[in-house]
Structure formats: structure tokens, C-alpha cells
């Protein structure tokens, strides 16, 4: 086709005519000349086309995306397309689908982390068998493993117990065993014999104080690092750190009432625990506080030292 615009008169292939006419920006009435597809079959929806036809229709857009990716994202076309797709989903409020896609992109899969599943099981008071039932049902209905199996929860649980993290005190603590294992002991062992007025038998899961403290600090690693970053101490790793701890003991009432079934038993549960109140770091002549517990009276920040049935 010969271009009808004055001072151009260029001959163009029929298929490229629309592209050529759009290059005449100064022309106000170029719409009059642009090619109109009269008749012919209507355009099919992009998703219903074959892969080859999709490539053909999107080749111009693909070229633009490739140019953008090379210029801005180091040639990562996949990241650009995925981000465009996520934005399109979120613009239509398809947030659940977007979240699942984002999880897959980040290599997390769409399942929940074992520690999250453990928190759900504990906070909803599910027994192991009840949780397992829910896990199987959800897996069967959705066809996906959203919740994690019980053995993964047990592994996650071990990481939360004192004695899990190997550690070494420098200098070594006086009168404290170097063995970090913890176990079940008599909760009243080591107390003077003047408590004969209370003929109670106890069984307790008691943790070594230093092992429990190490576990608590390891658990708070992210908060400590964030606090250091906030005080511009990100490269400062020497110490000494000053950790202020509040100890507490809490009667947990009649155990029989908690379970609500079976005969009433005279058992009481007692918990000895501690809370990390604040952590400071010596820097030069001053002490910089890098962590402070916002809710020091909340049971959520109590770290167990001894759980005892009396």
C-alpha cells in the first residue's frame, strides 16, 4: 500500500501498514487512514489460542518486556512477567491466588510452616489425633498439603525447648554443669526439708537455667539484631550484653478443671518461668538498650524453667 500522507508516499507491506501510520504523530486525522478489520472471524480470547498463536499475538509485547527486563532487571524476564501477573491479580482483589503464587515464586510452596501449624494446634487446643484428622481431611479435600504432618510439628517443637541449642559460656559459670541435656526430675529436689507440713509428691519437667536462657535469647535473635540495626550497631558483635530477667512463679489451678472430664483430682500445676525484660549493649562509655519487652506481664513472653505437677 502506498502511504496517502503528503510528502511520504512510502510503499508499505499490507500487514505493517497500521504500524507505519501510527508513526505519523503530527497527523490529526490519521484515524481516517488506519486499517479497519471489516468482516473476517472475530478475535479469539488469548487463553483459548494455541501456544504458537499466543506467541504470535504477543510478540510485540514480549519484545517490549524483554527490552525492559534487560534495561531494569538484569534480563530477568520471568520476574517482570510474574510481577505484572501479581499486580493484575491484586488489582482484581484475587489476593488468595496472588499469595499462593508469590509463595511458589519464593520457593516456599503454598503450605504453612511447621512452626505455624504447631502454633495453630496449641492455640486451638487440638490433641495430636484431632490435628492429624484435620491434616488428613484438608489434604484429601484440597489435594494440597497445606498443614504439615505431626512429625514435622514434633521437630519444630524440639527446637523451642531449652537444651536444643549448643552453647558455651565464656568464662564458664561457677557450680553449673556443662551438660546441656534437660529431663524430668522431682520438682522439690534441692529444697530444705522444712516443708514436711506439705506432704506432696511432685513430678516436674525442670530445665537448667542457663540452657533455658540460651534458648530464650536464641529465640529472640531477630529482635536483638533489629534493635542493634536501629541503634546503628549492625557490625558490632563483641558485647558484653546485659540481659535483665524477671523471674515469676504461677499457680495454674486444678488440672482436672482444665481437662473437664474424669474424676476430680487434687493435682495442682505450677509453673516457674522468667521473662527477658530488656537487653543492653555496652558501647564506648554508654550503654545502649537494644531490646525492651513491651508487655512484660503477658504470659506470651514467659519462658518456662520448671513445669510441675504437685
From TrEMBL:
Keywords for this protein: Chromatin regulator, DNA recombination, DNA-binding, Endonuclease, Hydrolase, Metal-binding, Multifunctional enzyme, Nuclease, Nucleus, Transferase, Ubl conjugation pathway, Zinc, Zinc-finger
Question: Which stretches hold the DNA-binding feature?
Answer: 39-106
> Which Gene Ontology molecular function entries are recorded, alphabetically?
double-stranded DNA endonuclease activity; histone binding; protein homodimerization activity; sequence-specific DNA binding; ubiquitin protein ligase activity; zinc ion binding
Record GO cellular component, one term: endodeoxyribonuclease complex
Q: Where does it reside?
A: Nucleus
User: Main localisation, per the record?
Assistant: nucleus
This entry's comment on the bound cofactor is:
Binds 1 divalent metal cation per subunit. Mg(2+) or Mn(2+).
Give residue ranges for domain RAG1-type.
1-28
Give the Enzyme Commission number: 2.3.2.27, 3.1.-.-
Q: Which InterPro entries match?
A: RAG1 (IPR024627), RAG1_DNA-bd (IPR058552), RAG1_pre-RNase_H (IPR058553), RAG1_RNase_H (IPR058554), RAG1_Znf (IPR019485), RAG_nonamer-bd_dom (IPR023336), Znf_C2H2_sf (IPR036236)
Which cofactors go with this protein?
Mg(2+); Mn(2+)
Domain comment (free text): The NBD (nonamer binding) DNA-binding domain mediates the specific binding to the nonamer RSS motif by forming a tightly interwoven homodimer that binds and synapses 2 nonamer elements, with each NBD making contact with both DNA molecules. Each RSS is composed of well-conserved heptamer (consensus 5'-CACAGTG-3') and nonamer (consensus 5'-ACAAAAACC-3') sequences separated by a spacer of either 12 bp or 23 bp.
**How would you summarize the oligomeric state and partners of this protein?**
Homodimer.
State the protein's purpose.
Catalytic component of the RAG complex, a multiprotein complex that mediates the DNA cleavage phase during V(D)J recombination. V(D)J recombination assembles a diverse repertoire of immunoglobulin and T-cell receptor genes in developing B and T-lymphocytes through rearrangement of different V (variable), in some cases D (diversity), and J (joining) gene segments. In the RAG complex, RAG1 mediates the DNA-binding to the conserved recombination signal sequences (RSS) and catalyzes the DNA cleavage activities by introducing a double-strand break between the RSS and the adjacent coding segment.
Stated family: Belongs to the RAG1 family.
Query: Under which name does UniProt file this protein?
Result: V(D)J recombination-activating protein 1
UniProt source species? Grallaria squamigera
Gene name in the database record? RAG-1
